Structures are given as structure tokens and as C-alpha cells.
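Hypothesis: this fold can be encoded by more than one sequence.
Test: take the C-alpha cells below, design a sequence, compare later.
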């Protein structure tokens, strides 16, 4: 019997990906790839759709820093039935906007049956700032990281939280050109880079699942809004998708603490990795590609799939890093490639013509 087929699907955050660079617009890709995988590992940037979400029983919701640690072989992923989630709110959130988020949390408890602890407010405003690199990629900083870490520590050790949802007050930049371009489906998500910094900080410090939702004032109506940006305009909060994702996010485990019977997933079980063709520069991808070149680590290297029509602001193709990859034109073709790989079918056999076998060199 074949072992379960495991796929990792990555769309890096804040790089202007044509698919996956907006709130939840990669969910159709996830739903499709999940049908040709036994286990699909992806991250909040791919699955979060503001107030929209789609639960998949075979998909693992893994924060980006944790995903890098997994791909490097340092952490494993242990599936869970349900996490107890702590909600941490930035002190900078105004009372009315805070209440909107608390009502969203109560709605998740009442309608979805999620398990949340009492909420916490940071002891200082987090002070989020947004920045854009020369390439157009976004990043950000927080002025009071210690305040966030203190709240997370209390949530875990005093309230028994198994996952952390964070809502930080982000700057409102209604008139900026970057925001207008994003709403028209042409720009880079101005928030994504700072969101990654916030979640990375907590996961690195505490090794628990974490995801972030920004607190923003509602934007004025725009009749020309791009469908890809529309999920972010549905209400006052992006929190619902984060709570749903964290509710079943796998717990992180180190090799020393692993219990085989728990069914943890490890990097050497990954069969395929799917990325935009220009975005192979992430540390996790390079770690996994490096591990795959050491035969002692695994029976065969994972299939690296480069999707060409998911354009990004990055310029790091697999060939520049010496990573063997199969190039496909679209995610639809990627799904076919995964299906063939899972079935043990050589993809050229699916074409109308096939070249005859040739003699090998002596």
C-alpha cells in the first residue's frame, strides 16, 4: 500500500502574487490541490479570506515561520481535533472597533463551536508601521514587541491557550496609491509584510500556532473594486478566517519530543511542493531542496512545481538556485502534474505522442 501523498502549497506573503496575493483568492487553488493530495500543507496567506473561509479536512494551516522550520526538518506537525484559542487585541484599537472584533469572536463561538479563552489586551499599543521595499514587496515593524510577547505568554501559561489569534491596529491609509492599486487587483497587499512579522515573532518564541488579523476602519465603497480584493470589504473585521484556521492548526513538535503514535508529519514525508515560478527564494524551500539532494534523508526528492502564470515581484526562479523543478503554466496544470506524480505516471505518457526509447551511452 502506498503511503499518504503530502503536498506543500506556498504563496509567499507581501510579494504581489497574482494569485494568493489577495484575501482568500488562492482558496480555489487549495480546494483543487487538496483533491489530489492526502495531506495538503499551506499557510494563512493562502487560506485566509477575511470573513470567508473554507475548511478542508486534509489541509494543515501552518504559520510561515513554523512552515520554514517544518521544511528544514526542525519541527514536525501534529494534527489536532480542536485548539483552544486566545484572542489578543492591540491596546491601540478604539473601543467601537474592539467591540466589533469581540462580537466576531463570540459569533465564532456560538455558530461554529470554536473554543476561545478570555481575551487579552496588550499592556501598550503595539505601534505597527508599514513599509515598501524598492522591489514593491511589503514589510513592517512593531514598536512594542515585548508587549505582544507578554500577552502571549499569559495566554499560554495562565489561560491554557493552544493557539494565538492577534488583532493589531494597522495604519489607515485610505488615499494611498498602493491601496488604490490593491483594491483594483493590481498592487501588493500593503499589510501582508507587517502581518508576517507579528505572527513570526510569537511562533518563534512560543512554538504555538499563531495568525493575525489587522484592525482597520471600513473603506468607502468602490464600484470598480476587483473581485480578488472584495473579500476584505465585507465587514468590520478579518478575524473569522483566522479563528477557523487556528481552531485546527497542527501543533509543532520537535524530533526529541515526538510521539510516533500521534501521526506527526515531517519534512521527509513531503512528496511535492508548489510555488510561483519566480518565488523560490524562501528559506524553507531552499532547506527542503537541500535535504532532497542528500539521499540518506529520504527515498526520493520531492517534486518541485513552478507555476508560471502566478506572477510576483520576486525574481528568484528555481534554476537560479540550482533547484530541479517542473515548470507548468497554471495551477490547473499543477493539479494534473500532482495527480500524475501521485499515481506514479510519467507525465509525457499523457501526451498524444511519445518518443521511442533510445539506446544509452556506453
Amino acid at each position: 500500500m502506498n503511503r499518504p501523498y503530502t503536498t506543500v502549497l506556498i504563496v509567499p506573503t507581501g510579494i504581489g502574487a497574482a494569485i494568493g496575493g489577495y484575501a482568500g483568492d488562492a482558496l480555489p487553488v487549495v480546494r483543487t490541490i487538496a483533491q489530489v493530495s492526502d495531506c495538503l500543507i499551506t499557510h494563512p496567506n493562502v487560506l485566509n479570506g477575511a470573513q470567508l473561509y473554507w475548511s478542508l479536512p486534509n489541509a494543515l494551516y501552518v504559520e510561515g515561520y513554523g512552515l520554514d522550520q517544518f521544511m528544514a526538518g526542525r519541527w514536525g506537525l501534529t494534527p489536532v481535533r480542536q485548539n483552544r484559542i486566545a484572542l489578543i487585541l492591540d491596546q491601540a484599537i478604539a473601543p467601537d472597533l474592539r467591540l466589533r472584533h469581540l462580537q466576531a469572536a463570540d459569533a465564532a463561538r456560538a455558530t461554529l463551536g470554536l473554543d476561545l479563552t478570555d481575551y487579552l489586551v496588550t499592556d501598550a499599543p503595539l505601534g505597527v508601521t508599514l513599509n515598501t521595499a524598492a522591489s514593491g514587496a511589503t514589510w513592517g515593524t512593531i514598536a512594542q514587541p515585548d508587549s505582544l510577547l507578554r500577552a502571549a505568554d499569559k495566554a499560554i501559561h495562565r489561560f491554557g491557550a493552544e493557539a494565538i489569534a492577534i488583532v493589531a491596529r494597522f495604519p489607515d491609509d485610505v488615499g494611498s496609491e498602493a491601496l488604490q492599486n490593491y483594491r483594483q487587483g493590481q498592487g501588493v497587499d500593503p499589510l501582508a509584510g507587517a502581518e508576517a512579522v507579528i505572527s513570526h515573532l510569537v511562533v518563534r518564541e512560543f512554538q504555538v500556532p499563531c495568525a493575525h488579523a489587522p484592525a482597520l476602519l471600513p473603506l468607502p465603497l468602490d464600484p470598480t473594486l476587483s473581485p480578488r480584493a472584495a473579500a476584505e470589504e465585507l465587514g468590520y473585521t478579518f478575524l473569522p478566517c483566522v479563528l477557523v484556521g487556528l481552531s485546527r492548526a497542527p501543533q509543532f513538535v520537535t524530533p526529541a519530543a515526538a510521539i510516533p503514535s500521534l501521526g506527526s508529519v515531517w519534512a521527509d514525508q513531503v512528496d511535492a511542493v508548489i510555488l510561483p515560478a519566480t518565488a523560490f527564494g524562501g528559506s524553507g524551500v531552499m532547506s527542503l531542496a537541500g535535504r532532497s539532494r542528500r539521499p540518506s534523508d529520504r527515498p526520493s526528492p520531492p517534486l518541485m512545481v513552478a507555476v508560471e502564470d502566478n506572477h510576483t515581484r520576486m525574481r528568484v526562479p528555481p534554476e537560479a538556485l540550482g533547484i530541479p523543478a517542473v515548470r507548468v503554466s497554471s495551477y490547473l496544470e499543477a493539479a494534473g502534474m500532482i495527480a500524475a506524480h501521485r499515481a506514479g505516471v510519467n507525465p509525457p505518457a499523457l501526451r498524444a505522442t511519445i518518443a521511442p526509447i533510445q539506446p544509452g551511452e556506453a
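The two ends are 37 Å apart (CA to CA). Residues 33 and 147 are 39 Å apart (CA to CA).
Hypothesis status: open.
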